[in-house]
Design goal:
alpha/beta, 2 domains, 48% helix
Length: 330
């Protein structure tokens, strides 16, 4: 057996002696190659992160541009040109009927509060602006509050020309300050995606921010009740538990991930791309304005106002439902 000292001597003569850091030279060159690859990979990762951050920042700026409350985006000339055909198509497809628009005062700011039905293709979102502009003229400013994701979609650019702005107290206040009529749907995504068997139910989910807004701005509330929208598809569930599990509320302000049966998709999850609505008859009734100080005193209780509003709207919805003999047909 070879002497260990002679083996070590031979190794040194063959150039395989350990370096100062204890790594044999035979292993050092491969390791240095791997180290170079690691540094290159790290630099690529940093560059990729920088590109992704710039891309995300650019997308966020574009999204913020789309969501800004530029009230001048409402285009009376565009509305005037498209109003006749749009109203004709709505009356053919939905057999739209809007009653008692005269309950809205002729001028000045007013807050219209409506129930919401029909998923992401809610008929009242189309019909009410058409009816309002036909009745009061396209020059009277009328704004509708919508979820951010609606405005971020390509169709959002068209909706903005009709007066749709992102739903927020600041945007609503700005629209009222300029003397506009503002339409708000307090039930939002919670109400619009309720199951079809709850189609005759007002469900604002106890949201009362619109009442505080009306009190602050000292404007009347005009209830607007619509029936028929929840018959444009078969809505199965809101999917609230799915949305919670996926953290959609914190990411996109979505409390639901609805599931429905709708054209042309069949099973429709999320309704993100909308759907082809069935031609259900849509009937809308505008109720008398509520002057809160006159009706509830100089310091109205929001809870009392809320209960009264939901009650009168539910009574009206029940009456409209009683007029319908068959689903969809009306």
């Amino acid at each position: 057996m070879a002497d260990p000292s002679s083996v070590a001597e031979r190794a040194r003569r063959n150039g395989d002696q350990a370096s100062a850091d204890g790594i044999p030279r035979a292993l050092r060159e491969p390791l240095e190659g791997l180290s170079g690859l690691a540094r290159a990979g790290g630099e690529l990762a940093v560059a990729t992160q920088g590109f992704t951050a710039r891309l995300a920042g650019r997308a966020m700026r574009r999204l913020q541009d789309r969501l800004r409350a530029d009230l001048d985006d409402r285009d009376p000339d565009y509305i005037r040109e498209n109003l006749p055909l749009s109203w004709l198509l709505s009356t053919i497809w939905y057999r739209a009927e809007v009653r008692n628009l005269g309950n809205i005062r002729e001028e000045g700011p007013v807050l219209l509060v409506g129930n919401h039905s029909g998923g992401n293709v809610a008929p009242e979102v189309i019909i009410l602006p058409l009816a309002f502009s036909t009745f009061f003229g396209v020059e009277r400013p009328f704004y509708q509050l919508a979820h951010n994701l609606v405005l971020a979609m390509p169709v959002g650019q068209i909706l903005r020309r009709w007066g749709t702005i992102a739903a927020s107290p600041e945007n609503a206040q700005r629209a009222l300050d300029c003397g506009g009529a503002v339409l708000v749907f307090p039930g939002g995504d919670w109400e619009v995606h309720r199951p079809t068997w709850e189609r005759y139910k007002i469900d604002f989910a106890n949201r009362k921010g619109f009442i505080r807004l009306a009190l602050k701005q000292r404007v009347p509330i005009v209830p607007v009740v619509t029936v028929g929208g929840q018959e444009t598809a078969l809505f199965l569930t809101r999917g609230a538990w799915i949305a919670k599990a996926l953290r959609l509320d914190s990411l996109f302000r979505l409390k639901v991930l609805p599931i429905s049966i709708a054209l042309p998709w069949g099973i429709n999850v999320g309704d993100m791309l909308g759907h082809l609505p069935l031609p259900a008859k849509i009937t809308t009734e505008v109720l008398p304005a509520i002057d809160m100080e006159e009706q509830f005193g100089t310091d109205p209780d929001p809870d009392e106002v809320y209960d009264h509003l939901v009650r009168v709207m539910q009574e009206t919805l029940d009456a409209l439902a009683a007029e319908r003999r068959f689903p969809i047909i009306g």
